[in-house]
Amino acid sequence: RLNAEVTLISLADYPMPIYNGDEEVASGPPQHAVALKRMIAAHAGVFIASPEYNASMTPLLKNSLDWVSRVREGREPPLAAYRDRVFALGAASNGTLGGMRSLIALRQMLELGCGALVLPEQIAVREAADAFDEADNLKDERSARLMTSVARRLVDTAQRLAQP
């Protein structure tokens, strides 16, 4: 529908130790950080979907993004995985705010900390435990339209960025 190839990943498939600058100096970034950085860098557009923990992003997401921010291969500039691509954000929570507070923290980290281009459009799915049908589609028509709109903007922007 959106004319895009999609790669779904789970951060659980990229286990890493808690970021520690001393460990990085001693051993370099972990293999999974390099693999995740390469996965991000292989795509012109990245959609990050995450639950909310205590009004912020999950520790797993924060740690993964921190490690990826430290990976430099060859003559790459710092934060290469976050440059020259576009990010879109989504959250889901069983609360009534749908993870909206976590998106603030995630946006701040990506834009200010990593210099990433993050779309202003985002989606927060409230009451997430009951928000999806058995095929993982959003039940609420308004939320489904918003998700499609965010995805369409991500694809359109990524395609423009990828053009030589």
Strand content: 5-15%
Low-confidence stretches: none
> Got a strand count?
3
Tell me the Rg in angstroms: 16 Å
> Secondary-structure element sequence?
HHEHEHEH
The biggest beta sheet reads:
3 strands, parallel
* Order of neighbouring strands in the sheet with most strands: 1-2-3
The mean pLDDT is 95
Q: Give the N-terminus to C-terminus distance in angstroms.
A: 24 Å
Task: Tell me the overall shape.
Answer: globular
Task: Tell me the helix content.
Answer: 40-55%
Query: Which class do the helix and strand fractions yield?
Result: alpha/beta
> What is the number of helical segments per DSSP (H or I, 4+ residues)?
5
Detailed description of the structure:
This protein has about 160 residues and is an alpha/beta fold. It is about 40% helix and about 15% strand. The chain contains five helices and three strands. Strands 1-2-3 form a three-stranded parallel β-sheet, with helices on both faces. Helix 3 (about 60-70) links the parallel strand 1 and strand 2. The longest helix has 22 residues, at about 140-160. It is globular. The protein starts with 20 loop residues before the first helix and ends with a helix. The mean pLDDT is about 95.
